[in-house]
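Figure 2 data, in text form.
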Amino acid sequence: MKCYLCAKKGKDTDAVAVCIVCGMGVCMDHAIREATPIWKGDYPARLEKDIENVMRILCQPCHEALKENW
């Protein structure tokens, strides 16, 4: 699998991970691994943050979108 973001720029870079949100293949330069909150409850009304965060890998676009809502 190749990094999708690199491929858009015309580069041929192997993916080392898959974004947990959108499934995009990402290389080391585009992968973001950090603690993300876990939400519990029923969508959309009764969601609340769980106390524990889990280390996950995200692509840059999903990371930016999720960071706005943390």
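Caption note: The chain has one domain: 4-67.
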